[in-house]
């Protein structure tokens, strides 16, 4: 046999082998054996690397298997052979999006759409990638350029409405949804989307009406019942909201977000016993995050002193109060001891998202991941300690904690109670917010930081302090800038007693719903029903600019905290602007946060422990102009000099606690600890020597 014939025989054999492998790959795909298909496609690629379809098929499979890094390599190999193909460009973009590299995905998506502009799912991906990179206007332009052709295209209108909503382009989203309703007036899901849009833009009267209209079409829609409940809560009608959330769970017990909403709303109602609230949290854990979900198999090395990987799970890495308290931890962390990952389910990224994004070692956008997929991603990252910053307050991923994707799991900051999930190990708090005995209503072990459980980052250049407004108005103005659902019937009773006891006084209430007609009428009616004329009540709506929001505090003399759910950021904003806050301390973390904050700020005399005392303290302060002047002059300085604003010191004790949690896990794996490590594992904070500020 000649040399040429030998080479031809080899080529023929390789071709036959590649053909067998290709058929095997195609069969394995049809049979639902993706790993076998991947191996077979790799065999084809090794034999004949010049076939772009094989690289592209491999990229598709790897994306479905959740291996975006390998998928990107396969897509790039396909692109080298077929650079203009829209589907290959789309696969490269999909991989980059899964790798949280949206900016790099943009040119691939633009290239795909240039060739096939009717691939509207790619248009949506491009718009969202632009939104993720802080370019919402460019994202909107991607849809606006075809909007004239979409008037009768229901799926395209749906896609556009979804993007416009996420991009906070409310009028555009409303226009699309109204057109969808016009095209199909009996399609109940449109009513749900429209209600959710109105809720997000504080148009609660409209949301309430739309949700009721939708329920006439589909009285068993859990989406619409949940939207109605959210509306009722935002209107301050929390008892009605509880009934509607319970209706959701009656229709479909496995709707975890609605169950979380129910749990959060229970804290707004006076008179519910801690045991009743705790029992409902335990029910959540049993239904949505049962112990059987958790696996105890972790690749994490149980080395007590090694650098730890901390994961923060949150929907609120954006303009949200949680960000004010998270940022000091990111800025002052010990980078030699801790690296930090974000698992962010942020619906609408903003400038705060962009700023905080760069403060994490890794930032993962996980909004669209299911709980099982998210658990896999966290476990694949080998996170040592996972810190959930939302609990049952607006997170779609609370139940992921039941999968136990990290060896140590912590509940912190965003929710004033237990998760009810047995797989969550710890909850970080302090001795004032959760005094001795609070363990009885927690599934987590309480770790109480000395001094206080949070650190506040005030704005760099807040508005100047002003004298108490009574000097110019001639009357005392009380105020509350807390959300309307925190204004319980009990606290309304107390506020009206105060107003009736202080002649000529006014009450200013500022909230997101303050511009909504139904909310305003409801709130004014509550005061009138208690004998206070509506002319004495000032209602202010949402103020988007933070400086303008803070400046509004200069219009009140004394802030009155809500009960049983206290303010947190609102209380600190008030102190920052020199306005004293009267708080009523209760039996539960949600009703004790004010006591923790005022104690740390050095003004514990403004804490009341009973309703009569709350009224008496407010009336007495209103009648003591000298003391009121002194407080307005000194409160900002007290706050800024307090432990509440000492980021470096707070980060040391926070990280001391995290290391203690890790040491406990290491000990449970059989590691023998040193005496110093034992003290840290027992959260003995006396071992933490704090250097002078």
Task: Provide keyphrases for this structure.
Rossmann fold; 13 strands; 6-stranded parallel beta sheet; 693 residues; Serine Threonine Protein Phosphatase 5, Tetratricopeptide repeat; globular; alpha/beta; single chain; 7-stranded parallel beta sheet
Q: Give the amount of beta strand, in percent.
A: 5-15%
The number of distinct β-strands equals 13
Structural class: alpha/beta
Roughly how many Å apart are the termini?
A: 87 Å
Per CATH, the superfamily of the domain at 470-645 is Glycogen Phosphorylase B
Count of individual helical segments: 29
The appropriate CATH architecture of the domain at 470-645 is 3-Layer(aba) Sandwich
Highest-level CATH class of the domain at 470-645: Alpha Beta
Q: How would you describe the shape?
A: globular
Most strands sheet: 7 strands, parallel
Radius of gyration: 29 Å
What is the averaged pLDDT score?
94
Percent of residues in helical segments?
40-55%
**Would you identify the regions where 5 or more consecutive residues have pLDDT less than 50?**
none
Query: How is the largest sheet built, in terms of strand order?
Result: 3-2-1-4-5-6-7
CATH topology of the domain at 470-645: Rossmann fold
3D structure, described in words:
The protein has 693 residues and is α/β, with parallel strands linked by helices. It is globular, with a radius of gyration of 29 Å. The termini are far apart. Among the domains are: 186-288, Tetratricopeptide repeat domain (Serine Threonine Protein Phosphatase 5, Tetratricopeptide repeat, Alpha Horseshoe); 291-448, Rossmann fold; 470-645, Rossmann fold. Strand 2, helix 18 (351-357) and strand 3 form a beta-alpha-beta unit. The protein has 29 helices and 13 strands. The strands form two sheets. The protein has a seven-stranded parallel sheet with strand order 3-2-1-4-5-6-7, covered by helices on one side. Strands 10-9-8-11-12-13 form a six-stranded parallel sheet, sandwiched between helices. It is 52% helix and 8% strand.
């Amino acid at each position: 046999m000649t040399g040429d014939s030998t080479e031809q025989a080899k080529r023929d054999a390789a071709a036959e082998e590649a053909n067998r492998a290709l058929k095997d790959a195609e069969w394995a795909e049809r049979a639902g054996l993706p790993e076998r298909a991947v191996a077979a496609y790799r065999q084809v690629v090794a034999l004949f690397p010049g076939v772009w379809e094989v690289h592209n098929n491999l990229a598709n499979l790897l994306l479905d298997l959740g291996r975006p890094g390998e998928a990107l390599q396969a897509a790039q190999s396909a692109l080298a052979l077929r650079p203009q193909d829209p589907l290959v460009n789309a696969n490269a973009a999909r991989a980059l999006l899964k790798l949280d590299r949206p900016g790099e995905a943009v040119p691939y998506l633009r290239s795909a759409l240039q060739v096939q502009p009717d691939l509207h799912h790619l248009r949506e991906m491009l718009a969202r990638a632009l939104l993720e990179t802080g370019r919402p206007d460019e994202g909107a332009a991607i849809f606006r350029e075809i909007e004239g052709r979409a008037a009768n295209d229901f799926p395209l209108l749906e896609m556009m409405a979804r993007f416009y909503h996420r991009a906070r382009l409310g009028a555009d989203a409303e226009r699309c949804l109204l057109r969808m309703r016009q095209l199909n007036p009996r399609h109940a899901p449109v009513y749900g989307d429209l209600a959710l849009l109105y809720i997000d833009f504080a148009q609660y009267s409209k949301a309430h009406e739309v949700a009721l209209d939708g329920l006439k079409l589909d009285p068993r829609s859990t989406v619409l019942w949940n939207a109605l409940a959210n509306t009722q809560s935002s209107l301050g009608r929390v008892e009605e909201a509880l009934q509607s959330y319970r209706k959701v769970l009656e229709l479909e017990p496995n709707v975890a977000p609605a169950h979380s909403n129910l749990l959060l709303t229970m804290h707004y109602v006076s008179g519910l016993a801690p045991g009743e609230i705790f029992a409902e949290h335990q029910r959540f854990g049993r239904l949505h995050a049962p112990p059987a979900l958790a696996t105890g198999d972790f690749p994490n090395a149980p080395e007590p002193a090694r650098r730890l990987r901390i994961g923060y799970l949150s929907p609120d890495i954006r303009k949200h109060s949680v960000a004010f308290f998270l940022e000091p931890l990111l800025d002052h962390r010990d980078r030699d001891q801790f690296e930090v990952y974000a698992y962010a389910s942020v619906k609408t990224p903003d400038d705060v998202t962009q700023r905080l994004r760069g403060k994490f070692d890794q930032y993962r956008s996980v909004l669209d991941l299911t709980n099982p997929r998210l658990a896999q991603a966290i476990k694949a990252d080998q996170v040592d300690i996972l810190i959930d910053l939302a609990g049952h307050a607006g997170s779609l991923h609370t139940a992921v904690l039941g999968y136990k994707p990290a060896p140590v799991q912590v509940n912190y900051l965003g929710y004033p109670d237990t998760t009810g999930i047995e797989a969550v190990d710890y909850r970080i708090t302090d001795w004032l917010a959760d005094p001795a005995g609070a363990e009885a209503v927690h599934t987590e072990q309480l770790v109480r930081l000395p001094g206080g459980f949070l650190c506040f980052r005030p704005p760099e250049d807040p508005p100047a302090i002003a004298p108490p407004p009574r000097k110019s108005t001639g009357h005392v103005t009380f105020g509350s800038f807390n959300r309307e659902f925190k204004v319980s019937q009990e606290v309304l009773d107390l506020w009206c007693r105060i107003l009736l006891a202080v002649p000529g006084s006014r009450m200013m209430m500022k909230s997101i719903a303050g511009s909504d007609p139904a909310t305003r009428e409801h709130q004014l009616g509550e005061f009138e029903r208690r004998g206070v004329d509506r002319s004495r009540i000032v209602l202010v709506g949402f103020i988007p600019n933070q400086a303008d929001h803070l400046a509004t505090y200069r219009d009140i003399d004394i802030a009155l905290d809500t009960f049983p759910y206290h303010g947190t950021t609102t209380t600190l904003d008030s102190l920052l602007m020199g306005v004293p806050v009267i708080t009523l301390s209760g039996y539960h973390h949600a009703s004790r946060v004010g006591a923790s904050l005022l104690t740390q700020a050095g003004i514990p005399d403004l804490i009341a422990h009973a309703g009569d005392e709350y009224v008496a303290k407010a009336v007495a302060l209103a009648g003591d102009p000298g003391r009121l002047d002194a407080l307005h002059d000194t409160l900002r300085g007290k706050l800024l000099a307090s432990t509440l604003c000492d980021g470096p010191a707070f980060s040391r004790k926070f990280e001391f606690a995290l290391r203690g949690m890790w040491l406990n896990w290491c000990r449970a794996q059989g590691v023998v600890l040193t005496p110093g490590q034992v003290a840290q594992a027992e959260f003995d904070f006396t071992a933490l020597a704090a250097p002078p500020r």
